[in-house]
Amino acid sequence: KSFMVLLVLLGSGLVVDGGLSEIHSLHYIYTALSRPVNRPGIHEFTAMGMLDDHMIDYFDSDKQVKVPKQTWMKTELEENYWEKGTQSRKSKQQWFKVNIKILKDRFRQNDSDIHVLQWVHGCNIDTSGNETEFLHGIDMYSYDGESFLTFDEANENWVAPNDAALQTKRKWDDLQVLKEYTKVYLKKECVTWLERFLKYQKENTAPVKPAVYALSREANVQANIVLTCMATGFSSINTIVQIKRDGLVLTKDDGDVRPNGDGTYQKRDQVEIPKSDKSKYTCEVIHESSGLHEIRVWDTDEGNTAVVVGAVVGVVVVVVLVIGIGLYMAVKK
């Protein structure tokens, strides 16, 4: 159970607002296990920095060194940054070791099962205006996949969702220095680093024009088809993707921007229409940073696109099934 909780938590993605806002995030995720396990890729302690849901640095208990996971991180940050980061991660590793033992004793647990303590903290900002706008911070702890403690920014105290966390809450609420540090880190220090990382990333990444697809497939209702307008492979999330009918926008540009996993993003708009509809439907994508403004037109008389999309989706489903089976077998062994 603990393995599955760990995999789900580390695999969860952050969905970015897909409007004209430029919403960015910087999060650090720390994960500690109650004891070592002999499983490839699963370490007793891991820590990683995530910029807009993409890993920028990494540390684990086996290699014991903080390393860059993006080329621009290695280029822009001096060796002293990585040395200090390594020492900081080692200190946090010891903190987790002590506190996971405290929690095991509090819950009267032994080493027959693997227990997981996680800490996630960071901040979200909007850079679409003339000045950076702080949106919110996050500082939360979870134990065995359940929320344990969360910092309430507005009231500047810790929130305990269950009785087991009340003892820690009371202790931390009495530490004014801790509350003040947490507030300042989330609203100022984290934002400073986030802006700095975005600057480094922008200076070292050339604007890439997204690939545009106007797709169609059969709908659940036999008399209808589903049109999908999709852009993928872009690095700037400020992208408009919309479907028009005879020149008029059908839906608001509020689709989610989702990470591809390679440092780029994708976004799509979708509408279901009757097959009998002979209106002119167009897929429009505007990507300001690369100067792209592309329009694709659907031919609603042709059914070939639906066949192609069906084949692509079929391949994706097979890949997902293979990955899922692999993870299941790894845990069961």
From TrEMBL:
Origin superkingdom: Eukaryota
Similarity comment text for this entry: Belongs to the MHC class I family.
GO cellular component: external side of plasma membrane; extracellular space
InterPro entries per UniProt: Ig-like_dom, Ig-like_dom_sf, Ig-like_fold, Ig/MHC_CS, Ig_C1-set, MHC_class-I_related, MHC_I-like_Ag-recog, MHC_I-like_Ag-recog_sf
Protein name listed in UniProt: Major histocompatibility complex class I ZEA
Pfam families reported in the protein's UniProt record: C1-set, MHC_I
Stretches that traverse the bilayer: 306-331
GO BP annotations listed: immune response
Signal peptide: 1-18
Key words of the record: Glycoprotein, Immunoglobulin domain, Membrane, Signal, Transmembrane, Transmembrane helix
Glycoprotein keyword on record: yes
SMART domains the UniProt entry points to: IGc1
Domain Ig-like: 210-291
Species annotation: Tetraodon nigroviridis
